[in-house]
Amino acid sequence: xxxxxxxxxxxxxxxxxxxxxxxxxxxxxxxxxxxxxxxxxxxxxxxxxxxxxxxxxxxxxxxxxxxxxxxxxxxxxxxxx
Length: 81
Prior knowledge:
Blueprint: H1 5-14, H2 16-27, H3 29-49, H4 58-64, H5 67-79
């Protein structure tokens, strides 16, 4: 059983197959990080093109370290009002 709590949780919810996938990703980050960075740039570009404010919730960004969630929340609030 893995030592880290997050991996233990994943193991308990998803089973060993998912753990093996996560283990592979963690052992080979160079295969995945460039794609994640590309995806992040793509999402921000789409939000920029849709005129979503760059940082609509600065306090959330400070706490969580990611603007994408705040930007998506901004969109969702406007969709449902």
